Amino acid sequence: MPPSNTSEQIVEALAAEGVEYVFGIPGDENLHFMEALRKDGRIKFVLFRHEQAAGFAAAAYGRLTGKLAVAMSTLGAGAMNLTTPVAHAYLAAMPMLVITGQKAVRDNRMGQYQLVDVVDVMRPITKFAAKIPSGQMAGSLLRQAMMAALGGRQGPAHLELPDDVARETELGPLVPCRFGDIPVATQDSIEAAAKLIQNASRPLIMVGGGTAPTGPPSRRRYGN
């Protein structure tokens, strides 16, 4: 069945892009997203006792696998608890997607309880941060967030999902993420480099954090 609301469309898109885990703590403002996860069944929700731990789990998962995981929280203090792992992921180039709840757009200035401008807080420590203003914009903004997190120098991206937008039924299109081809050296260049290394008396291999998804065993084999 096609998604019936914004939350279901977001979950559908995440699953289609290979997301396997959502780490976090549920609350009133993300119950529609939680229900969408339950109905879809392809993405596992892992409950934590503190949002900070959930954020570090998502960041570590991204560093170790090269794949995207979601750190989820409710609004206000819950969202603020994610700022430390998000800043860490930004500095260490760890891909992760943060989805935080928020009061309904139509009444988010009625009463200030736990009302924090989370998007403005997240913007300096993420590659992309935005509020989803409507169901019709959800697919486009989700694509931008995922491509920002996984493209180039990887890092965290943040989306704020207000309570009323999470249950909207007027949806826009979903466009799959598309990344440019990674440059690959020619066979002649590889053979020339290998010959230089073999003939070196003291070869030195400098490996950056961007090779993390290949795993330490492959680096050890190459070094040996």
Automatic annotation (TrEMBL):
TM helices/strands, residue ranges: none
Recorded GO CC terms: acetolactate synthase complex
Stored Pfam families: TPP_enzyme_N
Biological pathway: Amino-acid biosynthesis; L-isoleucine biosynthesis; L-isoleucine from 2-oxobutanoate: step 1/4; Amino-acid biosynthesis; L-valine biosynthesis; L-valine from pyruvate: step 1/4
Enzyme class: transferase
MF term (GO), any: magnesium ion binding
SUPFAM superfamilies named among the record's database cross-references: DHS-like NAD/FAD-binding domain (SSF52467), Thiamin diphosphate-binding fold (THDP-binding) (SSF52518)
Entry's Gene Ontology BP terms: isoleucine biosynthetic process; L-valine biosynthetic process
Alphabetic keyword roster: Amino-acid biosynthesis, Branched-chain amino acid biosynthesis
Similarity remark: Belongs to the TPP enzyme family.
Name this polypeptide is given: acetolactate synthase
Domain Thiamine pyrophosphate enzyme N-terminal TPP-binding: 5-118
InterPro entries: DHS-like_NAD/FAD-binding_dom, THDP-binding, Thiamin_PyroP_enz_TPP-bd_dom, TPP_enz
EC number from the UniProt entry: 2.2.1.6
